[in-house]
Structures are given as structure tokens and as C-alpha cells.
Design a protein that fits this description.
Elements lengths: L1 E7 L6 H12 L4 E8 L2 H9 L5 H5 L5 E7 L2 H16 L5 E2 L2 E2 L5 H7 L5 E4 L3 H13 L3 E4 L6 H13 L4 E2 L5 E4 L2 E4 L6 E8 L2 H13 L4 E6 L12 H12 L5 E6 L4 H12 L5 E5 L4 H6 L3 E2 L3 H13 L9 H12 L8 E6 L2 H12 L5 E3 L18 E5 L3 H4 L13 H9 L3 E9 L8 H18 L5 E7 L8 H10 L3 E2 L3 H15 L4
Parallel strand pairs: 6-7, 7-8, 11-12, 11-13, 13-14, 14-15, 16-18, 16-19, 17-18, 19-20, 20-21
Antiparallel strand pairs: 1-3, 2-3, 4-5, 9-10
Helix pairs in contact: 6-7, 8-12, 13-19, 14-19, 16-17, 17-18
């Protein structure tokens, strides 16, 4: 193997773009490892761990760009580095009156673009709080994509933003749509009168795309970051988002999405909900329906039902049923009947963390025990996230899988090895897969996964087993990837497609109970 390392001094690039580029280089024939990143301490540690290192890396600073490639020979290394440099040089700079805008600070950016009212912060976490504070001081709302920001910094930023009547979305905020503009991981959806405040990225995307599919539209989508509803933070951004949507004339219905908040925070949010004039639909995954309804809001047991309720309230119609349970049960019986005696378990391999959580809770409702790398209870947590146990649900976007690597929504090839690993297990009955489309996501997640799907089914068949792969595409036809085209590719490979994440999980749970002889 040959290694080539290039360092470009003071050459900052957005982390999302660099993760995407790393994934593209790693997928090249003959390339074993590829890392394109800023030379932060964390990224330098990654290079040290994977054995691509030099004295020049040690001397690089956090504002320097690293391009590191390990490949089968020197020619392949050179080609990969050249592709990286070409891709980075093609990045278009913002312009004004035909001149490039390359502001060196938030203050200079505000002077160049005085009409701007929002800043997206995507720098290493060590520097993110400082830049966010500068943006807030300059009167800008903030969406902070960066993570690795301390809890103390988050509380200070959100408290200051609240005092200044500004929104502080994040840290680790992956999805927003502000005034029809999708930010970071968002989908192309119809404009409408449903406003969303979401503490979970893929959960928010799921509700957005289903609202669009059911004939509704969104007015604003406000992200909060995953820690907002913790007791320490107190739900500052969700409360501010609620207040903003209550005042927003174009918003008729408000939707809240999160994993269950801390009890004290839930109580505070529901008190504010109770005083609103607009209908509110709340989806706290695995949350308390009675508590929500006592506050005068509508409880969405699943992300799909939340979207259906919001659209029905928007249009003044009755809520349409989610699915035909009898048809789903018949399909489960048919699929379960094809399987070998050894096949019992569901293995969920998810790019979206909230989609993973929702699927896990739905399968649990089928009266089966589940394990996960993101389970809240210690007894339900996998000892080794790389090895499944009985019914297992894996969030492949968790830090243990993504350290120094692109998120699986950006590079879905990261889960292909795990897919084949699960297919080789004679106990695996069902593999659940999500395919998340939209801005920032891979251009063809289904296409990347197809060879592994075909091989997984071939492996099972040659061993005398029927492997059921259930897939769900979270996206719209307006997304650059095109939902229908993605679904057609998967269907042609023998994947059973579900119209929502919840229905995919429900079908998997029904198969599981039949394979375990519980129904």
C-alpha cells in the first residue's frame, strides 16, 4: 500500500462537503482509506489510529486542510488526491455584483451582506461557539450544524439568543427550512401552513416528506439540536420556536417532534402549548399520550400519524387511517412462511437515528425484546455495537461508527459490510433499511446499496433461507435523488417497500412475532 498526504495551509472548507468528498474518494477502485478534513486534533488522532500519518500532519493547524489517501499503488494515490483538489477548486464562492465574497469573519460578512438575517455555523466544535456568539451579537439567527460544543456553551448561547429575541438552532442541528430555503439535511417539500419545531433531524425529515406526500405543506421548520429538551438546557429553542410559530401568520398548525424530553421540560413545553391559539400536534417518540392530550394538544404515536394529523387539521378534514392492518398481517404471514426454522430476528440498519428509535419502539410493541447501540436502558444496550444480539437496531450515524468518517446519509456504503454480516447470520429473518434523500444526502443511496442487497439475498438463498429485506425511502419526488426512481431500483432487487418508516417497522414486528411463535 502507498500513502500520500497533502496539507493546504489556511484552506477552510465546510465539514459536510469534506465528509462527502471523503466518501467519494474512499469508493474509488484501489483506495483503501481516504480522509479529507480540517486538521483538528480529533481528525489528526483519526489519521494516527488508521496509520496514515507524518510529521507534516503533526505540524498542521486547525485552519489547515488535510488530504490523506492510502491506496494500492502510488498512481492510485496521486489520482485520488488530484480528484480531491479538483473537486475543492470547483466550489463556487458567493458573489455580489460579479465579485467573489470571501469574508474573513462574521462581522465582515454582515457588512458585505447587510440583508442577511441567519448564519449557518459549520466549523470544528472548538471554534463553533465563538462564531455563533459573533453572529448573535450581529443580530443574526443561528443554525449550528457543528457538534462537540460543550453543554455550558450551548446554554450560554441559547440564553443570550432568547434575550435578543433570536433563534439559536443547535448545536448538532441537522435540518431546518427557513422561508422556503432548506438548510443542511432538508428535503424539497411543498410550501404550506404547517410549522415544525424538531429536536431530531431525520424525525423532522420524515414528518416533512409525509406532509408533502399527504397533500400538505410546511411554512417553517425550526431545528433545536438534540440536547435542547434535556433538563440542563430546558427546551429554550423549542419554546422560542413555539412562540415564533404562534406569531407567524402563515402558520395554521404547529408540530413538535422529539425523543421524550426530560419530565420538567415536558411540563414547561406543555404549559406553553396550553396557552396557544393554534392547534399543536406533538410526537415525542414513545411519549405519554395522556399528558399531551391534557394540555389540549394532539398526540402523534408515530411520525406518520403525526404528519396525517397535521395535514387533516390544516385542511379541516378527518385523519385518514395509516394502513390496512389486515393486509399488513396477511403479508407478514406470507413472508414468515417462506423462512427456515433458524430465522427469528429483525436486524435494523439505520442511517437516521430517530428512524431507528421509532422502528425499535414499534417492534417492541409486538411483544419482542430489542437491543441497540442507542438504547436508553443499560440492559437493552449492545455490549459490542459491531455484533448483533437477537432483535437488533443499529444507528449507524452514532459516533462509534462515524469517527473521522462521513455520516451514512452522506456515504451509505458504510453500512454495506454490516448488511452482508447480518445476511450471513442464519438467525436473521428481516433486515430493515432506511434511505434518506434530500439536500446534503448521497445522490443515489439505493444504487450504492443494490450490489450488497443482491449479494445478501443470494447468500441466504444458497443456504436454503428466505431473507426478507424491508426498505423505506424518506424523501420526495422533488428531491434531487427522486423518491420514485429510488424505490424502483430497490423493488427491482426484491426489496419489500413500505410507505413510511412506521409501516416498515410494523411489518417487521409482525414477521418477528410469527417467527417466534407468539401469534
Amino acid at each position: 500500500m502507498d500513502v500520500k498526504i497533502i496539507i493546504k495551509k489556511d484552506a477552510y472548507h465546510d465539514s459536510v462537503a469534506l465528509m462527502s468528498l471523503s466518501g467519494k474518494l474512499a469508493a474509488l477502485a484501489g483506495v483503501a482509506d481516504a480522509v479529507v478534513s480540517m486538521a483538528t486534533d480529533m481528525n489528526k488522532d483519526l489519521l494516527r489510529r488508521i496509520g496514515i500519518y507524518s510529521d507534516s500532519v503533526d505540524a498542521a493547524g486547525a485552519n489547515d486542510l488535510l488530504i490523506a489517501v492510502r491506496a494500492q499503488n502510488e498512481v492510485t494515490c496521486e489520482e485520488a488526491v488530484q480528484l480531491a483538489e479538483e473537486a475543492l477548486s470547483k466550489k463556487k464562492a458567493a458573489t455580489k455584483n460579479g465579485k467573489q465574497l470571501q469574508p474573513a469573519s462574521v462581522e465582515s460578512a454582515v457588512k458585505l451582506m447587510p440583508q442577511a438575517n441567519l448564519a449557518v455555523i459549520s466549523v470544528p466544535g472548538k471554534y463553533a461557539a465563538r462564531e455563533a456568539k459573533q453572529a448573535l451579537k450581529n443580530g443574526l439567527h443561528v443554525m449550528m450544524f457543528s457538534d462537540n460544543v460543550s453543554l455550558e456553551e450551548e446554554i450560554a448561547l441559547k440564553t443570550y439568543a432568547h434575550q435578543q429575541q433570536l433563534l439559536m438552532m443547535g448545536p448538532d442541528c441537522g435540518t431546518a427550512v427557513i422561508n422556503t430555503i432548506g438548510l443542511c439535511f432538508a428535503n424539497a417539500v411543498r410550501q404550506g401552513d404547517i410549522g415544525i419545531v424538531g429536536a431530531s433531524g431525520t424525525g423532522t425529515q420524515e414528518v416533512m416528506v409525509l406532509i408533502d406526500r399527504f397533500g400538505g405543506g410546511v411554512s417553517q421548520v425550526i431545528g433545536t439540536g438534540g440536547r435542547d429538551l434535556s433538563e440542563a438546557v430546558g427546551g429554550i429553542t423549542m419554546l422560542d420556536g413555539l412562540a415564533a410559530l404562534e406569531k407567524h401568520k402563515a402558520t395554521k398548525v404547529i408540530v413538535l417532534i422529539s425523543k421524550p424530553p426530560a419530565e420538567t421540560v415536558a411540563a414547561t413545553i406543555l404549559r406553553q402549548v396550553k396557552g396557544l391559539t393554534k392547534p399543536v400536534v406533538i410526537c415525542f417518540i414513545n411519549g405519554d399520550a395522556l399528558q399531551v392530550e391534557q394540555a389540549g394538544a394532539f398526540f402523534g404515536p408515530t411520525l406518520e400519524e403525526t404528519a396525517r394529523m397535521a395535514v387533516a387539521l390544516s385542511k379541516g378534514e378527518q385523519v385518514a387511517p395509516c394502513c390496512n392492518e389486515e393486509s399488513l398481517a396477511e403479508l407478514a404471514v406470507s413472508k414468515a412462511g417462506k423462512m427456515a426454522a433458524t430465522q427469528h430476528y429483525v436486524r435494523g440498519l439505520f442511517c437516521g437515528g430517530t428512524l431507528c428509535d421509532e422502528a425499535m419502539f414499534i417492534v417492541q410493541d409486538s411483544n419482542v425484546r430489542t437491543y441497540s447501540n442507542i438504547a436508553k436502558k443499560a440492559e437493552d444496550r449492545l455490549e459490542d455495537p459491531h455484533t448483533s444480539r437477537e432483535h437488533t437496531f443499529i444507528d449507524l450515524g452514532d459516533d462509534i461508527f462515524t469517527a473521522g468518517k462521513p455520516h451514512p446519509m452522506i456515504e451509505p456504503a458504510l453500512r454495506l459490510t454490516r448488511l452482508l454480516q447480518e445476511a450471513a447470520d442464519p438467525q436473521t429473518a428481516v433486515i430493515l433499511l432506511d434511505f434518506v434523500l434530500g439536500y446534503g444526502a448521497h445522490i443515489d443511496p439505493a444504487g450504492v446499496t443494490l450490489p450488497a442487497i443482491v449479494e445478501a439475498k443470494r447468500m441466504a438463498q444458497s443456504a436454503g433461507r428466505h431473507l426478507e429485506i424491508i426498505g423505506y425511502v424518506c424523501g420526495t419526488e422533488q428531491d434531487v435523488q427522486g423518491r420514485i426512481k429510488q424505490e424502483q431500483k430497490l423493488a427491482a432487487a426484491g426489496v419489500t417497500l413500505a410507505p413510511s418508516n412506521a409501516q416498515a417497522a410494523r411489518l417487521a414486528g409482525m414477521i418477528a412475532t410469527r417467527r417466534e411463535g407468539k401469534k
